[in-house]
């Protein structure tokens, strides 16, 4: 079974993330969307909320599972018997950080590969941070996140104002 892990903060998941998940689900037998619990960023959504939101938008992809992980990503991958980490690359600016991450992960566990997928150019400008900022400032997030999760995001942002 070819299993891959797509890790991230997903705070919240965007159309860019979903596009990568869709494409990866065609390449691998199973894709685990793994939400990092120990991110240094201060998240808007709790881990449980992020999982619930992701589950809503991956329903059409039966070989996509949603999970969380704590600690080193490569340890999590080994435990799941997944030997590929999927990362999306939006622009050259992502490259330096991702190159460093892929290199350190390779050093930590040699048998795990990082596979980079180019983000669909439609979403190359998109990030979870921008979604939160635009939503907070009452802009439209219609084209940025899946339709069904817009009310959840706006409700959360409104509850903080
Ligand atoms: O969506 P993000 O915030 O860019 O995702 C970053 C993430 C969660 C993929 C990255 O921070 C990560 O892999 N964290 C787990 C800890 C780890 O293994 N770090 C790399 C070796 S130091």
From TrEMBL:
Cross-referenced CDD domains: PPAT
Keyword line: ATP-binding, Coenzyme A biosynthesis, Cytoplasm, Magnesium, Nucleotide-binding, Nucleotidyltransferase, Transferase
EC number(s) per entry: 2.7.7.3
The UniProt record lists the keyword Iron-sulfur: no
Any single GO BP term: coenzyme A biosynthetic process
Binding-site list for substrate: 9, 41, 73, 87
Residues flagged as site, Transition state stabilizer: 17
One GO cellular component term: cytoplasm
Broad enzyme group: transferase
Protein localization: Cytoplasm
Chief site of localization: cytoplasm
Reaction(s) catalysed by this chain's protein: (R)-4'-phosphopantetheine + ATP + H(+) = 3'-dephospho-CoA + diphosphate
Binding site for ATP: 9-10, 17, 88-90, 98, 123-129
Cofactor or coenzyme needed: Mg(2+)
InterPro entries from the UniProt entry: Cyt_trans-like (IPR004821), PPAT (IPR001980), Rossmann-like_a/b/a_fold (IPR014729)
Pfam entry (one): CTP_transf_like
The keyword Cell inner membrane is annotated on this UniProt entry: no
Gene Ontology molecular function terms on file: ATP binding; pantetheine-phosphate adenylyltransferase activity
Known function: Reversibly transfers an adenylyl group from ATP to 4'-phosphopantetheine, yielding dephospho-CoA (dPCoA) and pyrophosphate.
Family of the protein in this entry: Belongs to the bacterial CoaD family.
Subunit structure, interactors included: Homohexamer.
Matches recorded under NCBIfam families: coaD_prev_kdtB (TIGR01510), cyt_tran_rel (TIGR00125)
Protein name (Swiss-Prot/TrEMBL): Phosphopantetheine adenylyltransferase
């Amino acid at each position: 079974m070819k299993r891959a892990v797509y890790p991230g903060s997903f705070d919240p998941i965007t159309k860019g993330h979903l596009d990568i998940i869709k494409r990866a689900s065609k390449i691998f037998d199973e894709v685990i969307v793994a939400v990092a619990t120990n991110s240094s960023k201060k998240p808007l959504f709790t881990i449980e909320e992020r999982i619930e939101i992701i589950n809503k938008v991956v329903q059409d992809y039966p070989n996509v599972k949603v999970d969380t992980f704590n600690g080193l990503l490569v340890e999590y991958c080994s435990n799941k018997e997944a030997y590929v980490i999927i990362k999306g690359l939006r622009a050259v600016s992502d490259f330096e950080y991702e190159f460093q991450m892929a290199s350190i992960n390779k050093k930590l566990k040699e048998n795990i590969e990082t596979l980079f997928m180019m983000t669909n150019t439609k979403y190359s400008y998109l990030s979870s941070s921008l979604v939160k900022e635009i939503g907070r400032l009452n802009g439209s997030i219609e084209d940025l996140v899946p339709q069904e999760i817009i009310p959840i995001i706006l409700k959360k942002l409104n509850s903080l104002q």
